[in-house]
Amino acid sequence: MLRITSLLNVHAFVGMLLIPVSAAKLASTGWRMARYYRGAEDYVLRGPPHVALRVVFAPVLVASTIVLFGTGVALLALNQTHGTLVGLHKASFVVWVGAFALHVLVRLPALVRALRRRLPAITATAAAASLVVGIGVATLTLPAVDRLQDNVTGTTGFDAH
Question: Which of 11, 49, 101, 157 has the lowest CB atom count within 10 Å?
Answer without folding.
Answer: 157
